[in-house]
Amino acid sequence: MTAVRTIGIVGAGAAGLTLAIYLADAGFNVEVLEKADGPSTLGSGITLQGNALRIFRDLGLWQQLEQKGFAFNELGLRAPDPEATVLAVLPDVRTGGEDLPATLGIPRAELTDIVRRRAVEAGVKIHFGASVTDVFQDTDSVTVRAASGATFTFELLVGADGHNSTVRSLIGVVDRPLRTGMGAWRAFVPRPSEVTRTDLIYGGPAYIAGYCPTGEDTMYAYLVERAQERDAHDGPRIMAELARAYGGPWQEIAESIREDTPINYTQFTAHIVEGPWHRGRVVLTGDAAHNCPPTIAQGAAMAVEDSAVLADELIRADSFDESLLLRYRQRREARIRTVVEASVQLGQWMLDGHKDADVPGLMHRVAHTVAVPV
Hints:
- The chain is α+β, with helices and mostly antiparallel strands.
- It has two domains: 6-72 and 106-177 and 270-370, 3-Layer(bba) Sandwich (FAD/NAD(P)-binding domain), CATH 3.50.50.60; 180-268, 2-Layer Sandwich (D-Amino Acid Oxidase, Chain A, domain 2), CATH 3.30.9.
- The protein has ten helices and 20 strands.
- It has helices at residues 14-25, 50-58, 62-68, 108-121, 166-170, 235-244, 249-256, 299-316, 322-352, 359-370; strands spanning 6-10, 29-34, 45-49, 70-72, 74-78, 86-91, 103-107, 125-128, 132-137, 142-146, 151-154, 156-159, 178-190, 198-202, 208-213, 218-226, 263-272, 278-279, 282-284, 290-291.
- The strands form four sheets. An eight-stranded mixed β-sheet has the order 6-5-14-15-16-13-17-20. Strands 8-2-1-12-19-18 form a six-stranded mixed β-sheet. A three-stranded antiparallel β-sheet has the order 3-7-4.
- α1 packs parallel to α4, α1 (14-25) runs parallel beside α8 and α9 (322-352) runs antiparallel to α10.
- The longest helix is centred in the C-terminal third of the chain and has 31 residues, at 322-352.
- The model has no long low-confidence stretch (mean pLDDT 95).
């Protein structure tokens, strides 16, 4: 006898769908409510480190991810000089174990498509165009109302709807993401042949110039600057100008940015919901409960790890009470705090101009923390 049988998940991103797969495989009745009208094809690329790959391998998805993405085991550091001189090539920590690569770059749409198809195969029902407007609960159930007027009733509701979570607001959690002072331009562009790993340049007109290969012919490039109000319509021109200030592959990247190239600009934010991550029979997971700047590329990994831990607690429990959801948060809190605080600290060092900051030590501490399986 399990604690609950019917579970609703708000949000069809990687965190929500990962949780849905774990639960559906275990025999739960799972429905996902997604506000978008259909599967998203938007976004550039995403960096998945080994601890995220370990979760996806557990779900039988590694081979598909490997085929659609680009795996590598090194991190390059380049100088902000006209040649983008390679200063060092460092072996990356294989946080998922030695039988998985350290890092996989993959287009976001490909990742979501692979995970969504697996969820549907497991029996998960996905409702697109289901924008949640109200949540009501009693001692035994949770009822969700969508903007269309449709209602859904579950024994447990999970808010996996991102850092601007509607569910979080509806259940009265007041914690919100705060801007950290940095912003980033991102572009999804053709991959120059010499780009076979992530290379980072610290300095120049941006704090960080970096890229990640995502397939045989694709990659995403990013430039991190002090946060400011930017006109997205002017994005291709601004990003191309910034890119031209760097050498090496950046010259080819700059040339590939056209007027119609989709460019994304976001300001970095961070938060951790303090206290319980639930109210009654509604619980938060992934970016709805915590988020961090992408400075150490652990945001997606933390979200899917949440899903694995919450699923484990639900599958093992034979009754439902508050202690189940408290255990879930307790298992995640220290690890999440380490990652979020380190991600913010790395950015703050750059904003403050700390040239002697112990960046290698910070990165080493995080890598060895997340290398321990959840």
